[in-house]
Every structure is written in structure tokens, then in C-alpha cells.
Known about the structure:
Elements: H1 3-60, H2 65-90, H3 101-121, H4 152-164
Amino acid sequence: MGPKIREALRRKKRLEQQLAQTDGTLSTLEFQREAIENATTNAEVLRTMELAAHGMKKAYQDMDIDKVDELMADITEQQEVAQQISDAISRPVGFADDVDEDELLEELEELEQEELARELLHVGDKEEEPPVKLPSVPSTHLPAGPAPKADEDEDALKQLAEWVS
Length: 165
């Protein structure tokens, strides 16, 4: 082998070592960059969570569960009052308060019984209506018509009924 070839091979070996070192350095830098990005993201998430917690504390600082329960009880009570007022307004005014519902039903039943008794007393008093004139029965023998065909649907229904039972 000639000296130029050996020199080229040595140079190639050095360049390969430099390339391996540079590649390792780049990998290390890339890992560091990713670690920094993750740390930055984690820090942002933590700050956002702190802001959210602070905002929630501020929103609820004047509230506690007892106050909320009391408020809900007040709302329920006011809704009941509103319903009572609505019921009072919608009730009929005047004589309707003096009438007993049972008495009304009893009186209605008596009137119905009286009407039924009157109708039964006058059953035979009605004028007889003239009999309805019907056509006379033909005196000749009628020819037999074609035998009725069984409806396909009826056959299918019969088969279905037989199958089911």
C-alpha cells in the first residue's frame, strides 16, 4: 500500500471519529433541548393550575356549604309561597265556597232517578210508528252464484293461527 492510501485511511478514521463525536454531541444537545421543553411545559402547567386554584378560592371565598344550603331552602320556601298564592288566586270567589261537592253529586243522582222513573212510567204512551215497508221475498228460485273464493289473507292468517297453537 502506498503512503497516500495510508494517509487517506488515517484521515478517514479521524473523520469517522469526529463524526461519531459530533453525532453524540448532537444527540446530547437534542435530549437537553427536549428536557428543557418538558420542564418549561411543566412549569406553565403548574402556573396555570396555581392561577385556577387562586381563582376558585377567590370565587368561593364568600361562600360555604351552609350558606348555599340556606339559600336553597329560601328558594324552595319562596316557590312554595308562590304556589300557594297561585292556588289562592285561581280559586273561584263567591258562592262556590259554600257548596259541598258531595251534596251536588247527591242532588244530581236524585234528578237522574226522577228522570228514569218518568221515562219508565211513559214507556207505553208513545205513539206507535207505522211499520217499515220491506221489499217482498222473491217467489222464484234464485240461481246460485259463483262460490266465493277464499281470501289469501284469511288462509295465511289461519295457517299462522294453526302454527302458533
